[in-house]
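Just wondering, does anyone understand these tokens?
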Amino acid sequence: MRPDPPDEAIPSPDPQPLPPIEPKRWRCCHCGGTGLDSYAETCLHCEGLGFC
């Protein structure tokens, strides 16, 4: 025979904050991640950031 279920609900633990997720960044295929083109100008594809 099973015992009767408890009359009160069992409280759940407080939710824990999740760690921040870093965005995936892909190295720029035009400048190779340097942010500069072959003329030492800002890469127009990634705007000088080095990643897309």
Remarks:
- The chain has a mean pLDDT of 85.
- The radius of gyration is 27 Å.
